[in-house]
Design goal:
Strand content: under 5%
Helix content: over 70%
Order of helices and strands: HHHHHHHHHHHHHHHHHHHHHHHHHHH
Low-confidence stretches: 1-6
CATH topology of one domain: Serine Threonine Protein Phosphatase 5, Tetratricopeptide repeat
Shape: elongated
Number of strands: 0
Distance between the termini: 99 Å
Number of helices: 27
Mean pLDDT: 92
CATH class of one domain: Mainly Alpha
CATH architecture of one domain: Alpha Horseshoe
Amino acid sequence: MITDPYKNDKENLKELLKQYNNLRQGKNSIFLEEEAFEKIIDFYDDQEEFVKALEAAEISIGYFPFSSSLLFRKADILLSCRKYYKALEVLEKAELLDSTDVNLYILKTDAYLALDKQEQAVEILENAIKHFEGDEKIELLFELADVYDDYEEFDKVFDCLLLILKEEPSNEEALYKICFWTDFTGRNEESIRIHLNIIDEHPYSELAWFNLAAAYQGLKLYEKAIDAYQYAIVIDEKFDYAYRNIGDAFIRLRKYKEAIEALEKVLELSKPEDVIYEAIGHCYDKLKNFAQARFHYRKASHLNPEESKIYYKIACTYYNEGQWGSAVKQLETALKISKSQPEYNLLMGECNLQLGSLKEAIQCFSAVVKAKPKNIAGWEALIRSLYEAELYSEAKQQALSALTITNAKPLFYYYLSASLFALGKTKEALIYLEKGLEVAPKVLKKFIALNPSILQNPQVVDTIARNKRSRS
């Protein structure tokens, strides 16, 4: 027979509330214990019936005027009602009765924070911490850390967590939190020192090993980080976040096969995530296994269909295989989500060039230049596509604009020169070719790539040879 284990508690509370209401209405003179009043106040508080909770607190204090516990409850309810100054008045009375209850200082802190008096809140907690030990001291340190967090004094949050771990090296909440704050504040060296000390005392603390590894990773010491993560996994073989971070460390080291193995373990141990599938896809991409990269990118897109970057990455795999049409389809999806993303338009333009759709390519590259006018790749692609479309006058104008906007990047001297040659303006073209050769002779290869037959022009060959001699 199945019974409700809480049935008796519910019945007792129901009877208690009945007795309280009779007392409140003066129907009988039944006596309620202090503990009974506490349960009644807590019930109304949990139900967020603060007016009733406050009334119950005031009635109970009438019967037990020297109960600090009831005063603390009343102050807590006043805080919920946003009556901060009244709450502080009640807490002053409670302090006269019991100044050793940690709730006194936590409630005072809440009141001062609500009144935007951070300095008073900090002062109360710092003074209180000196007079407490053990769990109560740790509770106050967590409270102080939260105050510093609210007011964006993040290094002091880290300091509080350090103090907690010195008091209690195995405190899980502190170990979880300090990992985040180490990364946020960049205080990796300090984190390494304290976690090495913790590991000396508690060698089987997987969280300490994990935090040590994360601090090494923050310093880009990836080999050390991997070793420390491995210790965490030995202690807890289902530690999915350790496998996740090992995967990231292997990617940083360009060890993509090892990264895939670690990330696949994450998928075994936890709920599938688009970022994990995307990371595995990235690894296969780097290994030039484009089919597997696409497979995992698609898995990511199913989990997060509104992330345009994933469709772009799929398009890149097709582009790398020379499947321009398939790449275009993926880019169309990406651009529906993020219409003016420059890198998507840049790749779309390159695909259209390969497909011989010069007009569409020019439109795409123009969109890149409009979105990011200082982007050299956009200008380079636009001028190159105009030249390929034999729109030499427009290519010349865009090369002049590019020189102005990009602070005279040498590439555009070469592109301006090529456009002028194509327009039959040889003298002017040679002047810009010489300028390009003077400032960036290595970029000459892009000038030649634009029109390899230019090397049949003896004036061009002579100009290049003369420049080589002057540099030797």
